[in-house]
Amino acid sequence: MYVSRSAASERQVDESMTITDYFPATASQKLSVVSAHLVGEHSLRLNKECDQVYYVLEGTGSITVDDEQNSLSKGDAVLIKSGQKHALHGELELLIINGPSYDFAQTEILA
């Protein structure tokens, strides 16, 4: 399945993050792939069902997973397992891979 950038759907997640759905849950229940643009803070949350890989395409920032904070820059990757609390800060362009497919109903916003 091929999806061009112009065919992917874009949506605002919160005041600081916009995502572009390339392969949403309707395309595959086993995984979903989005690109994300973050300017500011993506508040503390946890996903009850899916693991996520955040790959930094551009920018700098930081991520907190459970109680561990790390700086992020181009080329870095982070694995967030289901049930782990996480938050992002900075100006980042990310590729996010979710398995199984991301479902917002399975996300608990903590802050």
Question: Secondary structure elements and their pairing?
Answer:
Layout (H helix, E strand, L loop, with lengths): L8 E6 L2 E7 L8 E16 L3 E15 L2 E6 L3 E4 L5 E14 L7 E3 L2
What does this structure look like?
This protein is mainly beta and about 110 residues long. The protein has a single domain (about 15-110), classed as Sandwich (Jelly Rolls), CATH 2.60.120.10. The chain is built from no helices and eight strands. It has strands at about 10-15, 15-25, 30-45, 50-65, 70-75, 75-80, 85-100, 105-110. Strands 1, 2, 3, 4, 5, 6, 7 and 8 form an eight-stranded antiparallel beta sheet that branches. A hairpin with a 2-residue loop joins strand 4 and strand 5. The mean pLDDT is about 95.
Rg over alpha carbons: 13 Å
Write down the domain tally: 1
Number of strands: 8
For the record, what is the CATH homologous superfamily label? Answer: Jelly Rolls
* Order of SSEs: EEEEEEEE
Question: What is the name of the CATH class?
Answer: Mainly Beta
The portion of residues forming beta strands comes to over 45%
**End-to-end span in angstroms?**
37 Å
Mean pLDDT: 94
